[in-house]
Amino acid sequence: MIRWPFKDSQDTVAFTSKRILDGADWVYYVTHDVDDGVWQFHPYSGPTPEQDAAIVSLKTMLTMDPSISVLGDLPPGWHAWREAPDSHWVRKPMN
Question: What is the pTM of this model?
Answer without folding.
Answer: 0.93
